[in-house]
Amino acid sequence: MPATSVRELSLDLDAFEGPFDLLLTLLLKEELEPRDVDVAAIVLSFVELMAERDELDLEVCGEFLVLISALLELKARALFPEEAAELGELEPEEAAEELARRLAEYRRMKEAATWLVERLSGEGDRFFRLGPAPLAPHPQRTLALQDPGALAGALRALAVSPPTVSLSHMALRFPPVSQFLERFRALLSRRRRFDFDAEVGMLSRVEQAVALLALLELCKSGEIALSQASPFAPIRVSKVDDERIREWTARSA
Amino acid sequence: MDSPLRLIAATPVDRLARTVEALLVVASAPLSLDELADAVEDHPERIETALGLLRERYSEARSGIVLEHVAGGFAFRASREAADACARLFERPVERGLSQAALETLAIVAYLGPCSRPEVARIRGVAADSAVASLVERGLIAEAGRESGPGGAVRYRTTPLFERVFGLESLGSLPRLDDLGDSADEIRDRLLEVAEARAS
Hints:
The structure holds two protein chains of two kinds.
Chain A: E1 10-12, E2 17-19, H1 20-28, H2 39-52, H3 58-79, H4 81-88, H5 92-122, H6 148-159, H7 177-190, E3 193-195, H8 196-200, H9 205-220, E4 224-228, E5 235-239, H10 240-252
Antiparallel strand pairs in A: 1-2, 3-5, 4-5
Chain B: H1 12-26, H2 33-40, H3 44-57, E1 65-70, E2 73-78, H4 83-89, H5 100-112, E3 115-116, H6 117-124, H7 129-138, E4 141-146, E5 154-158, H8 160-165, H9 184-199
Antiparallel strand pairs in B: 1-2, 3-5, 4-5
């Protein structure tokens, strides 16, 4: 066997299938987990290969030993990354103590597994129902038994059309302008002048607006004269005759 | 004329026992005392009394159905004398073909759980991935959170099914770890003996 053929050793493992060389490459590139590699199976494959050959090539065996040792170290480091360093720092006596402790721990677990096996064989004649838990959530309170007639009556009551909504309170009512024309004329027949704001102050805004229209109408027809000391000041309404007399008096004076 | 079959006389506790009996027939997993008490809306003490009646009635050699206290609750199972007939008709897929690796992993999780795969691997010395996956698939162990810290490994614990399959009332029914295997001192002495023999 040539020396290079060790790396070309064909492997058929659970985690890998191909030449040993490729396996090493994948491990070094960290594309394969060392813990997934069955080292014992690799050794077996190599031993089988060697058994097929008549002569023992020590060089090949030596190379295989080096490679497989490196692989074992990789796997050990992957399995116990921190503990390897911890153990390395221990004194021989302490390391032996630690090793003994770990062996004892594993031995106990192995014994526990044996106990489970015995238990299982002793309980092998126990058959029981298996399945998803059928437990229901907390029971929900259901409605009492209902009379279908009563239910229909309730639905019928709900099905009646609702009464038409009245919007009458929203309508604007405009009193006729003539109403205010008459009112102002009557007022001017009793008094020669009056204060518009005081006269319509108690009325609604719509009525005040119509009253103003009536006022403008009277002014337009020349029946009254309007005066205002300043914008937004009270509007003074005077009979035109009275106004003319005052103007005449002023001019003659 | 034959009188109607009356398995249990009709006292209040007997009526309670019949209701508990019905619940246990419907359940496919053990029901705890509290679950039974909630369902029946009665005191746990009275449920216990009713269970006592049922246990007497459903016991080995008296009935084909046996009431057992298992996995923290109460459940019916087939009597052992009917096991052969049951085995001819029913499989036991959960425990069939459990490997040594799976059993060791199961033991570690049962005693030390919740524990992670790296912890199992540390004790067994080999990767535990496939053993853990197999046990999860069988429903014998289940995820139980993660180890603290970012990217912490998933931790596992045994399930009530594990206790049921192994006929355990609870995990407390497992033998004490100290009673299993050799102690660390014994192993250390043996190691020293081997070392001295080689040196001489």
